[in-house]
Amino acid sequence: MPSHPLTAASAVIQELERTLQAVEPGEIEALTAQIANAASIFVAGAGRSGLMMRAFAMRLMQMGFRAYVVGETVTPGIAEGDLLLIGSGSGETKTLAAMASKAQSIGAAVAAVTIVPESTLGKLAACSLIIPAATKESAPGAAVTSQPMGTLFEQALLLLLDTIVLNLMDRQALQGAAMFKNHANLE
Q1: Is the pTM value of this prediction over 0.85?
Q2: Which residues form the SIS domain (predicted)?
């Protein structure tokens, strides 16, 4: 008899709880402060991590921040005083590392959410939030997850970014209803 379908969901929730409990609270607070103090926030990521970063940019915009997704046709140039926030499990995606270097050369701050602090992006970032999950390239047996590839990182990334949204809302004494004025209305 097959196991109950929610058995897998329970395992995923346990993995997420274990992973999120291992994140350093000071890193969450430091990234929250970087975002709060940036003139504009630019987010980037590749693949599913990029989708999580896009969702975060949407929430920042709804809170009244100047937030942009790198690569969109309406995204302006980054400048000194801005923040480039990159989500990358491995921290080695070449296009993202090139973006980080370019942002630094312009005088923008770089922050990374990654698994590997000693990665290229981890070294380029002035502020890092480390998620202790398995990378999609982890060797078999080395993974701390039963989920495929970078799934645990991507899930934890979304939840941590939502946590930062809550922290920012608290700093601004902002209620969810106030954010609705910036919600899309042409749907």
Answers
A1: yes
A2: 31-174
